[in-house]
């Protein structure tokens, strides 16, 4: 509990919540219980106070000038309505207002960096820290994942994706009773139950205000003066400049962003000169299409600020608008280099952009505000210039991801995965551009995502590959689909429980044309599918091929993993095996991986050692599997964590407390359900059948047995070897208890249940067993 509190106090709430999740799972596995009320209370407090922003670390907002009435009004609306949208022109301060209201807790999903509607759900999932089930549509999975959460969700900058944002808000309204939504947008979401608040610009001085006291009372003037003083500490409103300052703020209509941009020029021009230049700029722009005058005033001051830049800095500004979110100086330089031609002084240009408030400096780099990014992209247009910059950005992202696939199962696996998750906005935009313009480049990007995918089972990454393949089929370009895209599709099928499809895609990959790292991963998938299907001879052959390919590619960790898989094949396939010797070999692999800082493989080898000792030394196996579970959590390997949880529960079911075993299996089933990994869900439910039968939950066991047998036919897993023997014994035990006719009837009922109903029924039965319900029969 103190660890959670310390992390929260250090403004690291996401890590604090991860500690709670790990503690909760550990208590369920080891003691069959829940965290204490005190720990649960701390967990709830952290949930109510966290303010993570997807794609960005927010600095604390300074006090808002002239917005106390608006803050009170919106706060009152959020108390009465579960969906409130703050609307207003660009640059009016909607985001600042929302973040000021968010200081008490919740989540912020910043949508300005998102270009595709499909990505909105993933951005919200990132902000709230939930995982989306693979077997649901993203929007359904989001509603389900947030159903029990409490807090306020800010959807910031919705106007360009208003339909997708409205869909998220509607799902939250319908499925998440303890979450309210605060949206910012230039237009309302237009959903039932929405309250709309129009945020107007700061009040400028009236035409009658000519005295220093009355002009200085205007919120727009107060903001102007504060921003000027940030650069010119001695600036004051005087009798000489009072009229000009008032005129500047009136001409800018009190739009805060306009006021701030104009204030940055006060070091070079007087208020009188500034007012004169703004008047000329407005005349130039007034002939355009009719728009809200406040839009014209903002556009005018942005256009004027842009016009004051040196020509090469204008080019730099336009190019930087391609970045969907934050970027650093190195990225800016690499982007300009990708565009070719003469290389402007990027450092000096960035400094000028920051100095003129056309670029915002952050702790880890730079960012264009949405209004300024839109202006930059408008300057680029929609033709060759925009494509050239977008292509350069995609190549830049690919160069950063290039070679990451070679870190699979190596010492750099975790850092490679973090690089992808830390730059998802850029990767998402790059993949979207590449799949429409450069399939080969799209393949390089997807290959770079493999380390992240292997740990997280990301639905978004596998979705990118499926979209690419679908589009290629529609345009007759299937032959040009990159091998990496086919491999990512194989990973998705493997997680989804479609083993025939996983095998088919992986076979295409190894047939030729793949990079070494992609081939290694494909061989691993083929080996895993073969093991699931009980084809141990094929599994052995694929493991050997993976080992050879990994050694040739210099992927030491992958070669060790292949060795470990060969040991598992021997353990599963050879009835005359020497399990202790296999365990010693697996333990040696773990030590070798640990010495090489290959943490992902080290913990997989601990799992493999435990698997070899399940029968020979259950206590030692349990300890090793506990290590593997913790290792999976520490490395972010959700796949390893899940398989280790299942094996650990199986030990408890055979030689420990059935109630603790039931709690562990329940935690494992929930884990796989949250991940949407049906391959492992069905395999783990085989062991649940056995436990329920032994615990006397015979009706539930018979129904679940029918569901499992039917699922094996659908998924292509098949029940082989010891699993087949065990399930045969379970069925016989149920027949002895209930009779053959009744077991057949119950199995037939289970066979037609949809898979969510199957898991729900299994979890309910496991809960009853773990709680020791008297007289429970599973009916």
TrEMBL record:
<dbReference type="InterPro" id="IPR027417">
    <property type="entry name" value="P-loop_NTPase"/>
</dbReference>
<dbReference type="InterPro" id="IPR005158">
    <property type="entry name" value="BTAD"/>
</dbReference>
<dbReference type="InterPro" id="IPR011990">
    <property type="entry name" value="TPR-like_helical_dom_sf"/>
</dbReference>
<dbReference type="Pfam" id="PF03704">
    <property type="entry name" value="BTAD"/>
</dbReference>
<protein>
    <submittedName>
        <fullName>Predicted ATPase</fullName>
    </submittedName>
</protein>
<feature type="domain" description="Bacterial transcriptional activator">
    <location>
        <begin position="3"/>
        <end position="47"/>
    </location>
</feature>
């Amino acid at each position: 509990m103190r660890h959670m509190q310390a992390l929260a106090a250090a403004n690291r709430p996401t890590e604090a919540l991860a500690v709670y999740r790990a503690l909760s799972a550990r208590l369920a596995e080891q003691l069959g219980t829940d965290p204490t009320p005190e720990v649960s209370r701390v967990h709830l407090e952290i949930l109510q106070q966290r303010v993570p922003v997807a794609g960005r670390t927010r600095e604390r907002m300074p006090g808002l000038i002239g917005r106390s009435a608006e803050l009170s009004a919106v706060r009152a609306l959020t108390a009465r309505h579960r969906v409130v949208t703050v609307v207003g022109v660009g640059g009016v301060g909607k985001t600042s207002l929302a973040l000021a209201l968010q200081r008490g807790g919740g989540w912020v999903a910043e949508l300005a960096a998102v270009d595709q509607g499909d990505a909105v759900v993933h951005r919200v999932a990132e902000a709230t820290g939930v995982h989306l089930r693979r077997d649901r549509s993203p929007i359904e999975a989001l509603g389900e994942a947030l159903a029990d959460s409490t807090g306020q969700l800010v959807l910031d900058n919705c106007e360009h994706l208003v339909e997708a944002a409205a869909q998220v808000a509607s799902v939250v309204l319908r499925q998440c009773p303890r979450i309210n939504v605060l949206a910012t947008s230039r237009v309302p979401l237009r959903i039932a139950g929405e309250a709309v608040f129009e945020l107007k610009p700061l009040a400028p001085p009236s035409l009658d205000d000519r005295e220093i006291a009355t002009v200085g009372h205007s919120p727009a003037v107060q903001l102007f003066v504060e921003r000027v003083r940030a650069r010119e500490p001695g600036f004051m409103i005087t009798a000489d400049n009072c009229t000009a300052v008032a005129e500047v703020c009136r001409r800018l209509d009190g739009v805060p962003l306009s006021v701030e941009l104009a204030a940055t020029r006060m070091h070079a021009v007087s208020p009188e000169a500034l007012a004169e230049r703004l008047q000329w700029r407005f005349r130039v722009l007034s002939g355009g299409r009719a728009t809200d005058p406040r839009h014209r005033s903002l556009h005018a001051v942005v256009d004027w600020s842009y016009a004051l830049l040196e020509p090469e800095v204008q080019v730099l500004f336009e190019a930087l608008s391609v970045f969907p979110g934050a970027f650093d100086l190195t990225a800016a330089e690499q982007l300009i280099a990708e565009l070719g031609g003469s290389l402007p002084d990027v450092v000096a240009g960035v400094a000028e952009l920051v100095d003129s408030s056309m670029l915002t400096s952050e702790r880890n780099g730079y960012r264009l505000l949405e209004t300024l990014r839109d202006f930059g992209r408008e300057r680029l247009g929609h033709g060759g210039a925009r494509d050239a910059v977008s292509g350069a950005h995609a190549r830049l992202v690919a160069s950063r991801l290039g070679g990451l696939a070679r870190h699979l199962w190596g010492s750099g696996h975790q850092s490679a995965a973090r690089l992808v998750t830390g730059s998802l906005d850029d990767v998402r935009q790059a993949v979207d551009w590449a799949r429409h313009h450069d399939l080969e480049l799209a393949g390089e990007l997807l290959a770079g995502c493999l380390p992240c995918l292997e740990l997280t089972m990301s639905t978004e990454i596998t979705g990118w590959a499926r979209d690419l393949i679908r589009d290629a089929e529609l345009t007759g370009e299937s032959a040009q689909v990159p091998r990496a895209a086919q491999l990512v599709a194989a990973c998705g099928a493997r997680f989804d429980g479609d083993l025939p499809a996983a095998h088919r895609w992986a076979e295409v990959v190894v047939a030729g044309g793949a990079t070494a790292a992609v081939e290694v991963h494909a061989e691993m998938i083929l080996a895993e599918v073969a093991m699931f299907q009980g084809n141990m001879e094929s599994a052995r052959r694929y493991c050997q091929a993976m080992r050879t390919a990994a050694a040739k590619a210099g992927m030491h960790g992958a070669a060790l993993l292949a060795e470990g898989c060969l040991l598992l094949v021997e353990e599963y396939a050879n009835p005359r095996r020497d399990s202790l010797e296999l365990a010693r070999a697996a333990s040696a692999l773990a030590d070798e991986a640990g010495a090489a800082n290959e943490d992902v493989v080290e913990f997989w080898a601990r799992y493999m050692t435990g698997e070899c000792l399940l029968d020979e030394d259950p206590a030692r196996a349990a300890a090793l599997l506990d290590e593997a579970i913790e290792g999976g959590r520490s490395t972010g390997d959700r796949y390893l964590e899940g398989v280790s949880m299942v094996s650990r529960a199986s030990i408890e079911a055979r030689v420990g407390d059935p109630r603790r075993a039931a709690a562990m299996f329940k935690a494992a089933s929930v884990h796989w359900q949250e991940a949407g990994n049906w391959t492992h869900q069905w395999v783990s439910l085989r062991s649940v059948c056995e436990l329920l039968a032994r615990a006397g939950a015979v009706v539930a066991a018979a129904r679940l047995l029918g569901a499992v047998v039917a699922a094996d036919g659908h998924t292509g897993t098949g029940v082989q070897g010891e699993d087949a023997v065990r399930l045969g014994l379970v069925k016989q035990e149920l027949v002895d208890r209930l009779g053959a006719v009744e077991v057949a009837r119950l199995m037939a009922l289970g066979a037609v249940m949809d898979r969510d109903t199957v898991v729900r029924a299994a979890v309910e039965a496991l809960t009853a067993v773990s709680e020791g319900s008297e007289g429970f029969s599973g009916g």
